[in-house]
């Protein structure tokens, strides 16, 4: 293993803040993209359901 302890692993040779903040920011961005996609999918489903109901009423 490249690190002697878990603390050394977290510090990553004094680059730990940069490394872990980059992972955190990337995780937040990926979560936001997934959440936005999920919200858009729900909106499209609602719109299609409304359109379907309107078509059935004609």
TrEMBL record:
It comes from the Bacteria. The chain crosses the membrane at residues 17-38. It is found in: Cell inner membrane. Pfam families: CcmD (PF04995). Keywords: Cell inner membrane, Cell membrane, Cytochrome c-type biogenesis, Membrane, Transmembrane, Transmembrane helix, Transport. It is a single-pass membrane protein. InterPro entries: Haem_export_protD_CcmD, Heme_exporter_D. Belongs to the CcmD/CycX/HelD family. Required for the export of heme to the periplasm for the biogenesis of c-type cytochromes. This is Heme exporter protein D.
